[in-house]
Amino acid sequence: MSGPITKKSFGCKAIRLQMICPNKITSFSILLFAIMAFLPFQLMSLPVIVTGHADQMPNKLVRLIVYSDQFSKLEKTIASTYTNESGEFDMEVDIPETTFAFLALELKKGEFYLKPGATYSFFIPYDTVRQRGSVFDELPLRFTLESEDEGLNRMIGEFNQSYNEFVISHTNRIYRSRDKTLVLNFAKALTDKYASEGEPYLLDYMKYTIASLEWVSKIKNEQEILEAYFDPDDPVLYKNIQYTTFFTDFFKAMFGSTHLFNYDDMTAAINSEKGYVNVEKLLNRSERLSKYPEVRELVASLLLAKKYYSPDIRKDKVLSIFTEIEDKSVFPNVKLTARNYRKKLTHLEYGSPAPPFRLKDAEGAYTTLAHFEGKFVLLSFQRADCPLCLDYMSDLDALTREFKGELQVLTLVDEEGFRETVEYARLRSFDWPILTIGKQILVLEEYNIRAYPAYVIINPDNTIATANAPLPEEGLSFFIRRFRNQYQRYKEGNTGE
């Protein structure tokens, strides 16, 4: 079982507020209340305390991660620390509202829900963090969780289990029958069960889970879903993961609704000179979206992100429309979402800044990409327990001779296999830096390393050429030549201007 196993809550954390002169209203009190009424919402944040124990895992990075926005799902670390020699850790962070979150140990992540004013205590067993292979392909981080959060994590866990059991047990009736009774009765039973808890996040979470079920089971058609769940008088629930998931799935499916949109129309709108204006005109074909500008602008961002990799879509047009949305929208969260989509879509693309690092070589000297500016750099990510990684080092040696003076190879290896890799290279007279990742493990996340070996080609100006270079035997030399020629044409074009 993955994810948090939530034990029974021990009640809400008590928060004491000391009041001055409670029986007397003074001019100072009136002024104070007037000031507080206009304070930004984020100033009303409450502290969250997170403690834990990672069994037999000393000196390991621990992070609290949330989504900067839950549409683009761009991750943001809001607190970090290291386990001590006993594997214990603690963090404190202020948050303004309940949100979906991850606890990360090194690069493995497990899901839970953060609530302002709550306390959380995690236990991470040793055997879940010792698996080999790509850290991205392992099971999610497993832990047990004791939380004082008014039962939020426990209730969401119970609801998810009931929902999964219901769907598995009644799949045929849900998806093949037009009988609404089964789903409606299930929804009512769960709503009745948790309504008395008065937990807004949970109730919204349930509401939009049921909305997804009503949609996919065709209990409600597209227009009925729009009318039931996207009323212009209702707020956009930016922090509720079930709302944003339903929103994303539903509107992405709408892009295939031929009575409103079609591929040619969407392509023409995005690629046009007045891209932002024409995308809005396209979405205004939906009467509901025409009356709900905040949702319409979010839907525009979803459309742009979905079409970004389409061969018929100009990427520069997509990015310019995101910029227009960010500049022109009156909704702060829409601006943030558009900005995050641009950042996420362009990460590790050709010409984007290469994530920086500062790593030690075998002599203990620090190495950075800036040291090799003016040369192409080939980053080789590998591990000592990967025989193929070591075998390919001979091919890398051949590349250094082929591109002598133009290409710098850097091998990045985890701390456990560092000395073994250094010795392997020394015995074969491989003459390029072997760097230890050490505690800078986030370099793997920043370069999206999912398997070993992995190769990344960096341009001479420290921008990305490709973050998905092939293996040496699959044409790595050809790729380096291709990007060398492409970069030369780019430089000559700029010089000509």
Topology:
Elements: E1 3-6, H1 27-37, E2 46-54, E3 61-69, E4 74-82, E5 88-95, E6 99-105, E7 108-114, E8 119-124, E9 142-148, H2 152-169, H3 171-176, H4 181-195, H5 200-216, H6 222-229, H7 241-254, H8 263-271, H9 275-283, H10 287-290, H11 293-307, H12 315-328, H13 332-346, E10 359-360, E11 366-367, E12 376-382, H14 387-391, H15 393-402, E13 407-413, H16 418-427, E14 434-436, H17 442-446, E15 454-458, E16 464-469, H18 476-496
Helix pairs in contact: 2-5, 4-5, 5-7, 8-9, 11-12, 11-13, 12-13
Structure commentary:
- By secondary structure, this protein is α/β, with parallel strands linked by helices.
- The longest helix has 21 residues, at 476-496.
- The protein has helices spanning 27-37, 152-169, 171-176, 181-195, 200-216, 222-229, 241-254, 263-271, 275-283, 287-290, 293-307, 315-328, 332-346, 387-391, 393-402, 418-427, 442-446, 476-496; strands at 3-6, 46-54, 61-69, 74-82, 88-95, 99-105, 108-114, 119-124, 142-148, 359-360, 366-367, 376-382, 407-413, 434-436, 454-458, 464-469.
- The strands form four sheets. Strands 1-9-8-2-5 form a five-stranded mixed beta sheet.
- It is built from 18 helices and 16 strands.
- A hairpin with a 2-residue loop joins strand 6 and strand 7 (108-114).
- Helix 2 (152-169) runs parallel beside helix 5 and helix 12 (315-328) packs antiparallel against helix 13.
